[in-house]
Amino acid sequence: MSIMTTLTDPPKASFRLSMLLYDTRYRSTTIQVIVLIAFMLGAAWLLNNVRVNLALAGKDFNYGFLQQVSNFDINQRLIEYSSTSTYGRATIIGLMNTLLIAVMGCLTATFIGVTVGILRLSSNWVVSRLATVYVEMFRNVPVLLWILLIMGALSESLPQPKDFRGDEPSATMSVFDSVAVTNRGIYVPEPLFSTGLGDIPVFWNSFEISLDLMAILAVLFAGLMIGKLIKTRAIQTQAATGELPKTGLIRLAIVVIPMLIVLWMLGFYLGYPELKGFNFQGGTRLGNPLLALWIALSLYTAAFIAEIVRAGIMAISKGQSEAAGALGLRPGRTMNLVILPQAMRVIIPPLISQYLNLTKNSSLAVAVGYADITSTLGNTTLNQTGRELECILLLMGCYLAISLVVSTVMNAYNERTKLRER
Amino acid sequence: MTMTDQSYVRTQMLGEKAPPVSNVGIIGWMKNNLFSSPLNIILSLLAIAAVYFVLAALLPWVFGGVWNASSLKECRAILLEIHGEPTHRACWGVIHERFWQLMYGFYPSDLYWRPNLALVWLFAAIAPVLFNGLPKKMLLVSVAFPFVAPWLIWGGSFWVPVMAFMGFVVGFLVHRFASKMISPLMGIIVGVLATLLWWLLLSSPMANLFAGIVPLAIEEVGSRQIGGFMLAILLGITGIALSFPIGIVLALGRLSDLVIVKALCVGFIEFIRGVPLITLLFVASVLLNYFLPKGTQFDIILRVMIMITFFAAAYMAEVIRGGLAALPKGQYEAADALGLDYWKAQRLIILPQALKISIPGIVSNFIGLFKDTTLVSIIALSDPIGWVKLIQGNAEWNGVIWELYGFVAFVFFLFCFSMSRYSMYLERKLQTGH
Which residues in chain A come in under a pLDDT of 70? Predict the structure, then answer.
């Protein structure tokens, strides 16, 4: 018995310094402490360099410049802004423009990408080859080149505003004289309210929220909610009686009729663009930079999304579509009810990173002069104030925050649609 | 009753009948692939019409273009003379005249052989990775490449790359000596320190000393003279090559059990992946000097290379992490069972397999990086897009859009498409599973 104890119990050695390096119990801690010290020394060195260099340049580190008057104009904006506004407000305009292009781009890229991805798998030879050509063409050419090319195409090939003038103009407005496509951008009708509710200022008068928009959104939301409730009730009825009551028309009416009433009460009308002087007035203008960026980013990202969708669909075993066929489902319904819901699980994770890529690529706006955050904060503000450190740190912080929010939201969605394995 | 006299039973098989004409040959193919259903008929006709209209507009423009013209005006005049009326035809004269600038920038034309030789050397250097069964001595070419290529491109004294290489030799010798005398871990640390000290303190005086004794030098070329596709390729290859070791370290760090190391690696990777490349390039162009000791001045291309390397390393780390995660757990356990320590297990068992799995990912990373090098035109470097802008700003060629962008896009397409096809071929070749 005493022999056993001596065999199993290692001798109680006293702690020696060399054990920090050779004993696996302590070694990982030693390495980590060394790494941490090295990292902190490196960071301290960098920060000290920054301190010395800033002092040499006679600068300090503060964000006070965001309160100063900016003196530059932005013509593509979602909220009020003029050259007497502050740099801070210009930054917010830029951030909103970035988000605008990101949301618009993601929507159209998803639509085009899913369509092309499905077409690539089509049994129709010409169509699938055409889809392949599209994908390869856009994937293998830099996105910046596409942006510049489309920008050039828009400003070179579209008619000038003056071409719309005269008795026999060389260009005419499209869609019942409501949309003007010119080389300075596209003018579309804007929604206006003759008896509107006005705006209310929030955040110490820095923003105005349109009450009309709020009212419309509230009615829309309420309509959708009630519609969802009706649908739930219908499904309960189906579970109880076996018959699904037809609710489509009622649900449509519940959204549409109150909306029409609200629009009528607010005196809704469309403001059409009109040619006045050298340019079009009225309507909402979508400038060329916005259009070029939107089209290029959508087409470019769509090529990647198409590949993701194709891979996702191909990952679903053939037995699934054969089983659906055996049940008598038509090809369209097989795709919608059987293949796509399963393929979504494969598609979503890479799709998230494509959305993030699109958002990050929208920073190329600076090349065509679209006032996104890189352009307002990283270019104009930086050049005017000379505050490189503050501007670029804030810029990076904004992009990091967007990336973090998008990936959190999309990961939550991914978690919900994921296959539950027991 | 025997069965044999039943005369109506055929005793010989008939030959196969030919399938109906509508199911074979070009007609059958068209019927099956293009016109199998009403929807398919409509889609086919629409697609064919679209292809026809695009080609009908594009082909005369491309092939009816003018190659010999020294300005846009002259080109338009030639076209008017030929066709008698204003037509849409390409003015390829701009490519003809500016071809070498789009390729090499302002690089002296009598020295074009140097970057060309560097490129050929690159292919020789990566040959051992791509083909099996090459003689071991080919590895010497690979080892020499990182020192020879910058010397060929930037020129200068021959002793600078030699002394840079000596840094590794010194480090290795110190490592060997220290490993024997103290311990393997200390050997690595001392070896790295010796290399760094050599580079920081001794390398340049030694190079000057040798240059004083034996002046071997080739003409120096400034960074500002490097441009065009040469710059894009240079940035892409440096970025991928330098990011490879950093990416491996980051990926291993991210998967390690050491909490602090892991946190640092995750922080670095996610930070870089969360911001657009253009902000990193802004850092390179205006901010990097703030982070370095006062008075440090170095080349814009070098600064851009550093930031591009960081950028590529974060993405490379994720690709390699994917490769590491795809390895079956049994491989890790087998390495442990053999009693290998961490580095031996990684070096002999894990990494060779994980890197093989990640080769296609690395190639697509490289394609992405190569395309992203166009962003340097935003911080006023003269890559192909920067050159397009320069040429457009020129009085002779003001207003040329399609030809220039089309040409640059075509060259990028050739590079990226062939690389992606090659990566697909590699993927098939490396497929050892069943």
Answer: 1-13, 21, 165-172, 174-177, 196-198, 202-207, 277-278, 419-422
pLDDT in tens, A335-384: 888 988 888 888 888 888 899 999 999 999 888 888 888 888 888 888 88
Query: Please, where are the H alpha helices in B64-158?
Result: 72-83, 93-104, 113-130, 138-154
The ipTM of this complex is 0.86
Q: Which of B424, B402, B403, B406 is nearest to B414 (CA)?
A: B406
User: B409: closest CA among B374, B365, B381, B380?
Assistant: B374
Which residues, at least 6 apart from B107, have a Cβ–Cβ distance to it below 8 Å?
B115, B221, B225, B226, B227, B230
> Which residues in chain A have their CB less than 8 angstroms from residue B409's CB?
141, 145, 149
How far apart are the CA of A236 and the nearest CA of chain B, in angstroms? 37
Across the interface, whether the CB atoms of A32 and B260 are under 8 A apart is answered yes
With beta carbons under 8 A apart, name residues in chain A contacting B385.
142, 144-145, 148
Instruction: Give the residue from B310, B370, B405 with the most A CB atoms within 10 Å of its CB, the best one to mutate.
Output: B405
Half-sphere exposure of B253 (CA within 13 A, CB side): 22
B199 CA: distance to closest CA in chain A (Å): 19
Residues A311, A401, single domain; the answer is yes
Residue A100: both structure tokens together: 């605008």
Q: How many angstroms away from the CA of B291 is the closest CA of chain A?
A: 5
pTM: predicted TM-score of the whole model, two decimal places = 0.86
* Closest chain A residue to the Cα of B38, Cα to Cα: A124
pLDDT tens digits in sequence order for chain B, 434 residues long? 555 566 677 778 888 888 887 777 788 888 777 777 788 888 888 888 999 999 988 888 888 888 888 888 888 888 888 887 777 788 888 888 888 888 888 888 888 888 888 889 888 888 777 777 777 777 888 888 888 888 888 888 888 888 888 888 888 888 888 878 777 767 777 888 888 888 887 777 877 788 778 777 788 888 888 888 999 999 998 898 889 899 999 999 998 888 899 999 999 999 999 999 999 999 998 888 888 887 777 788 888 999 999 999 999 999 999 888 888 888 889 998 998 888 888 888 888 888 888 888 888 889 999 999 999 999 888 888 988 888 888 888 887 888 889 999 999 999 999 988 888 887 787 766 55
Domain-embedded: residue A374: yes
Least CB–CB distance from A126: residue in B44, B291, B408: B44
Is the same domain home to A124 and A37? no
- Name which of A365, A369, A351, A345 is nearest A406 in CA terms: A351
Domain extent, residue A110, equals 91-157+288-422
Nearest to B375 by CA among A378, A288, A143: A143
Q: Give the angle subtended at the CA of A328 by the CAs of A322 and A332, to the nearest 5°.
A: 80
Contact B278 A364 (CB under 8 A): yes
Count how many domains chain A has: 2
The answer to whether residues A31 and B258 touch, using CB atoms and an 8 Å cutoff, is yes
Are A42 and A140 in the same domain? Answer: no
Contacts of B33 in chain A (CB under 8 A): 123-125
E strand segments, B282-358 = none
How close A201 comes to chain B (CA, Å)? 33
d(CA A356, CA A295): 17
Give residues 182 to 221 of B whose Cβ lies within 8 Å of A: 183, 185
Q: What is the C-alpha separation between A97 and B432, in angstroms, rounded?
A: 49
Of B258, B278, B405, the CB nearest to A366: B278
In a domain, A181, yes or no: no
Portion 46-65 of B in contact with A at CB < 8 A: 47-48, 50-51
CATH superfamily of B64-107+224-434: MetI-like (1.10.3720.10)
Q: Do A141 and B292 touch (CB under 8 A)?
A: no
Q: What is the CATH number of the domain that holds A382?
A: 1.10.3720.10
> Cβ contact (<8 Å) for A21 and B43?
no
Q: Examine the domain organization and report whether A28 and A143 are in the same domain.
A: no
